[in-house]
Amino acid sequence: MSAMAEGRSLELYFIDGRPDGMLTAEVFNWTGHVLMTPRTRIGDALARKEARYTGVYLLLGEQDGGPCAYIGEGEDISDRIRNHDTRKDWWTSAVLVTSAANNLNKAHVKYLEARLVEEARAAGRVTLDNGNTPPRPGLSEAAQSNMESFLGYLFMVLPAVRVDLFIKNTRPTVRAAVSPGAPPVPRFSLFSRKHGLTATAVLQDGEFIVEAGSMARLRWEGQSHHYASLHEELRKSGVLEQQGEHCIFTQNYAFNSPSAAAAVVNGRPANGTIEWRLEGGSLTYKDWEAGQLAGVMKEAS
Question: How many domains does the chain have?
């Protein structure tokens, strides 16, 4: 059987006692320290000891009607933000990333900055206010390994504090099974005779993944809905590419639900639990899921 993923414990501390105020985030056995603050509290945040450490920082907000971010580094983050970035008028919150022992040096944070810019551009979720992607500095093999480990923890922490610009929803080739002897990965299909659409998806590792080569509507045609912006985002990022009168998924893409996947495929709000059907049969996703839950309850009794 495959080994289970190792769990992590994240400690959040709400400095103001409010979920929309300043907060810190730390993980046991990780040297990193994250301080997140709304712009309205930036003065208090920059007065804190860790804000004067060497580190990287993110400025988050909106510009030209869409999400925007800036990634920077400094040997004294507070000095950099106070003297340079307060002149940017679009950002509304900041994330300061340092080491609890202040043992990051200039080369470390320049490497982290370069990697963060690379990952943000690869994810394509927000527009970066940075110019070019900065080059990675020359670090020893051991130092690079340490910084990649640091980033691994950081990419786990940031989504927990609602910072999602590094999240990639594209996925590699889907595995036929998790491990030898394991049941096959369930595969589902969606057909629309009216619009000539065919799409396939798998449920793997808790994600509903629409497979590359699946078809989708060229444009969002349904009523206004938050999935309309997702459809547009996938068009802009190249995950959906026009092919004649339809779009084609150029990569496997993980959705947070069958309904989100069905909505993007159909170009309208959709109940994916009844529109996706188990491949090779007539069961809807809803009926298949009910059968899985019944099996679990039977085993537990």
Answer: 2
